[in-house]
Amino acid sequence: xxxxxxxxxxxxxxxxxxxxxxxxxxxxxxxxxxxxxxxxxxxxxxxxxxxxxxxxxxxxxxxxxxxxxxxxxxxxxxxxxxxxxxxxxxxxxxxxxxxxxxxxxxxxxxxxxxxxxxxxxxxxxxxxxxxxxxxxxxxxxxxxxxxxxxxxxxxxxxxxxxxxxxxxxxxxxxxxxxxxxxxxxxxxxxxxxxxxxxxxxxxxxxxxxxxxxxxxxxxxxxxxxxxxxxxxxxxxxxxxxxxx
Length: 244
What we know:
This protein is mostly helical. The protein folds into two domains: 1-68, no CATH class; 96-237, hpI Integrase, Chain A (Orthogonal Bundle), CATH 1.10.443. It has helices spanning 30-43, 48-67, 94-97, 101-117, 127-137, 141-144, 167-181, 188-201, 206-213, 218-225, 234-243; strands at 6-11, 14-19, 159-160, 163-164. Helix 5 crosses helix 7.
């Protein structure tokens, strides 16, 4: 934000606007920070994610002040924003966020065929194996592209000319494969979402899924990865059986 952000501060019976930048951090009180944070969310119509990214700067600044013994406590860490203030964001459709079971099966079959024939991937011959690997592990593309062999930890598992396979090569291959198969292209991150969704769908303990996904909380796993990747025609029958 380029404009100065103002904090509503109550002074006896008067309400004055104070520029928070001009308040020494040693004099910042929790009530002032809390009022300012709530006002900022409301005035800028922030989503929960926008506020989290925005407030991270303030939190880190005050934590650093504690490291320098300028502050004894970071009051901002205790501030809780009323969830009703956050702007609601419509959840994106499952069709754009995960691969359906049918799409996954087709992509994996094409990857196997592609690797065996090695006709279209002369530049990146290991890319099909990398896609298969991600569909089995759910690792982030940047993580599995830099995996090294267990023998000497010097060579990469997925490589090109002794260098690690690039995430761009994986995403480019996925895009071309999706186009060939006739469905909307989705990135490698959607492969990761698909794997995590499959674990949730299989009723694997959510704590175990969270740990595998590397999330800080189960809430993150459910909020961003709980989707529907089954055919639309299958859901009514499953619901009917569940309620029978």
